[in-house]
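_Backbone structure tokens_
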Amino acid sequence: MNRILLLGHSHNFETRLHGLLGSAIHIVQRQPPTFGSAAVLGTLLAADRPDIALLGAFLPRARADEISAGLARLYPGIGIVNSAESRSVTSGWDTGMTAHSVLSPRNEVVGTVSSGIASERGSAVATHRDLERDLEREVEVLATNLTPSIEPFPPVVEVIRRRVIAVVAPKGGLGKTTVATNLAVGLARQAPMSVVLVDADVQFGDVASALSLDPAYTLPDVVRALDQKDTVALKTLLVLHHSGFFTVCGAAEPDNGDRVTGEQLSRLIRQLSELFRYVVIDTAPGLGDHALSAIELATDAVFLCDMSVPSARGLRKEIAVLNRIGLMPQFRHVVLNLADRKSGLSVRDIESITGVPVDVAVPRSNLVALSTNRGIPLLEDGGRNPGSVALSKLVARFEPNAPVKRGHLHRRVVIS
């Protein structure tokens, strides 16, 4: 049984295909291409691999070709079929295409591609009367010629679980922004264009500085667009980082950022979680209204403390409060930042004070301060150092196939 990825603007076209193929082929439906090709591809993962991608009607040729090229990179060997329903759309389809075939509901040859596996699959010409017949034939031919080395996938489509990750600390100066920016860089490597980093420290957020960004729009602008229900304009207000993720930078002036309410922040997080695979939130220190708004919607919380008694005690109180009010996210990750062996405390001591095990220890290093001052996160720099290794371990905890350990003894972290 084949798996089809269906993308397109036309509800009627999708309804017809469901009637034609629904009983025989599982349809994988994703985000419609309202927010551009990057947003569409950003919702897909390699593990979701379909056998055939069917691009629906009324997609402009440029948009369809961008999506086709992206699908070919993400799923090597996939069969790609374009369907065109208007003369303006079908003109010029015969050259420069990544797609393998084009279907049209009229009595005209739209074109085929003479490259790759397309040359082996022949022409796909359809009329309104026999669109169903040709579509069935094209799907069958594409399925027959799929790359043999591709492993078969189960017929049941599993829903990709979205992750809303709140980076939390009881006080400032513990490295929340450093961890949040590196987390965004690392996640963007495994899921390009499907990560958004939100600077939720509304008064003194410095994500823009940590990433060397000069945003034209900041958090107040973005929530204002949502207040006006202008969701189409939302993506145009996000800042794209060259590492392959989007950002919502904090306000340039504290008084401007202070106008953003916790309710507005919640609405923004909900909207972004519908568009992106990962939403990383750099929260304000403590448990203020904005931090609680982020934590309430989070699937994961990354808690930070350092090698000091006040920090560890603060983390213990913070976790206790969240447990008491019922806002503890489903998954908890404890990061011991600025770790060293010269503080007079050990990892065991920190765990004894906080009452929770440490999952990742990021060693104290001059490279961290240097990367922050340069505006280049450690994981973007690509160097191999203890700090990068530790941050990569944190990123690995969010990989789709990362095992969830339950009922096992915790392996104590060792400071590098």
